[in-house]
Amino acid sequence: MSFSIKLGLLGDPAAGKTSLGRKYVDDTFTEEYLPTIGLDVYFKEYKFRNYTCNCAFWDMSGYAAFANLRLQYLKGMNGAAVLFDMNRAFTIDGNILPWIVELIEMQIQENIPLAIIGNKNDLEAFKQINETDIIDKLVKQLKSNKIKYFSTSALTGQNVDEAFNWLIEQAILSI
Ligand SMILES: Nc1nc2c(ncn2[C@@H]2O[C@H](COP(=O)(O)OP(=O)(O)OP(=O)(O)O)[C@@H](O)[C@H]2O)c(=O)[nH]1
Ligand SMILES: [Mg+2]
Asked: Which of 16, 75, 113, 161 could make an SS bond with 119 (beta carbons 3.0 to 4.6 A apart)?
């Protein structure tokens, strides 16, 4: 049996949404920053138990200019990866919660699976965030049992498969 799911990539500009999605789907990484204009969609087939799942990744621009468009894109999402950049504290401090609120407000499905992702962990030396407390608070606040935190690098590939495989499987199980 086969079916499709829709997953979102959300978070501040340059957090690494496109880099992480591309690493997972094509196993590529580019140093150059090419901001996503509005939206980019790409696909990956995922085998789970007896199912073949067609996963559509909706990779959105992080810029405020696209906020209205983004609200349209969020409809019918089965799960989302919400990213921050571990080396720029403001991408988590005030910014991560609005992304999640925006997502939840647009959801038809309650308790949407969320992978919270602290990206660029290869730049450990520049790390500005002690994220554990913030994530704990966030998880409690959202009262969801389908939220998990991952620390990733699109450059080295660390935890990329773990994060997306988890998200896909949670999304499938929630359909
Ligand atoms: N060192 C390092 N650099 C990264 C990593 N992930 C992304 N980058 C770099 O960060 C920059 C921004 O990455 P993007 O993936 O384009 O960011 P984005 O979140 O898609 O940005 P928008 O599309 O503008 O919202 C690029 O120069 C990437 O090469 C990472 O894990 N480690
Ligand atoms: Mg992008």
From this structure: 16
* This prediction's pTM: 0.95
Residue 153 Cα: closest atom of ligand 1? 31
* pLDDT in single tens digits along all 175 residues of the chain: 889 999 999 999 999 999 999 999 999 999 999 999 999 999 999 999 998 999 999 999 999 999 888 888 988 899 999 999 999 888 887 778 788 878 777 765 668 899 999 999 999 777 777 788 888 887 777 767 799 999 999 999 999 999 999 999 999 999 8
Whole-number Å distance, alpha carbon 35 to ligand 2 midpoint, is 5
**Domains of the chain (ranges plus CATH)?**
2-174 (3.40.50.300)
Dihedral in degrees, nearest 10, Cα atoms 19, 147, 58, 173: 120
